[in-house]
Amino acid sequence: MSSVSEKSLLPSRLLSCLIAFSMFLLISASLSLVQLSHTSLIPKSVLQLIIADNSKINLEPDGKGYAQRSPLFKIGTSEKGKIAIQEGTSEGLDPKRVIDEPKIYRRESCDERRALLRVYMYDLPPEFHFGLLGWTGDENKTWPSVNARSRIPSYPVRPCSAVRVKNSSEADVIFVPFFSSLSYNRHSKIQGKENISINRMLQEKLVEFLKGRKEWKQTGGRNHLIVAHHPNSMLIAREKLGAAMFVLADFGRYPIEIANIKKDVIAPYKHMVRAIPAANSAPFDERPTLVYFQGAIYRKDAGRGMASSKFCLNIAGDTPSSNRLFDAIASHCVPVIISDEIELPFEDVLDYSEFCLFIRSSDAMKKGYVLNLLRGIKQEKWMKMWERLKEISRHFEYQYPSQPGDAVDMIWQTVSRKKTTRLNVHRKNRYSRSQFL
């Protein structure tokens, strides 16, 4: 039997912090949409706070941080099918297969007239965004800026999927720059003599602001984009702002009239294991473990365990989706999805049945069903899915500056499409028996 002992934990709230980090990247991309002559971007010091040393961000307002331990367990199954439960702690992409982005959008320079999406962004006060990270600017300053032109990423390095416009009447989408997940993580509890939490106060102020805007009144909010990736973010305001387009992790805690696949965007979690370069990914014969389950939010050797396994279980938890799916993709470990209600990022352009196995919960409950199914997958079939994983894994990477086809760019492209034709076709492929042959 082959298994990996894992005994170390990071705070269980780190995943929530990473959700806020992902949301930050999307808003950072929005800030870079304006042309160089008009750009006001994020200073390097702020970026380093989030990207290079995000461990310095306290999860609690008192600065002491908070750590909550959760039980850990791993299921490791050898080729002989024995199960051990332990307690403890994009390269080579074929552009024709993934992105339907016309060649004109891949040019080195970005022609604003040819962009997929024109975005107008509200200049909300800093208390809604970078103020939540402790940034304080001048009295009349809304956004951090960089004075040295050499420190600003050159305009063409980001994809030409979206450009920022200064007039809301020219926009396809109106972006609301509220760090809602970070607001929930840091300010959802009532502190001291406060009557309400800062998180609730910000949501109420946001509703008042948006309801008073002519842009909201003209469309009822249907052209507004709000990032609410943490499942518990925007709890107070989501019903009042339900007409807007949300960027979410899943629909697990939303009624269908508030959030649904027709209007909203599913974005990936930021994976927690280190991404494996395609050239270093272990093939079939070098993965001794048949199936691996990462039961905790983070463990020291989780990446090694996934990288040495052929299949990785993705089972629904308190919500239909989980970070372990994206850890598996980053490790090129074929995901086995047991979550009937899961919604998947970018499924209108990615056919997940090419690199994932889907098992209905009712089938997974049958004794021996999962193991027998996985043992029956032939090497040729697994290798084909493994090759596809290496091709598509870059679409789940959050980068700054954003690169063509990365997670930020894919989110903007999804916003620009919002069509269900290809999505419905791919969803029908989920449980096709042919994928197991």
From TrEMBL:
It is found in: Golgi apparatus membrane. Belongs to the glycosyltransferase 47 family. One of its GO terms (molecular function) is glycosyltransferase activity. This is Arabinosyltransferase A. The lineage of its organism: Eukaryota, Viridiplantae, Streptophyta, Embryophyta, Tracheophyta. Residues 116-301, 302-372 form the Exostosin GT47 domain. It holds the Pfam family Exostosin_GT47. The keyword Glycosyltransferase applies. Keywords: Glycosyltransferase, Golgi apparatus, Signal-anchor, Transferase, Transmembrane. It comes from Sesamum calycinum. PANTHER family: EXOSTOSIN HEPARAN SULFATE GLYCOSYLTRANSFERASE -RELATED, OS08G0438600 PROTEIN.
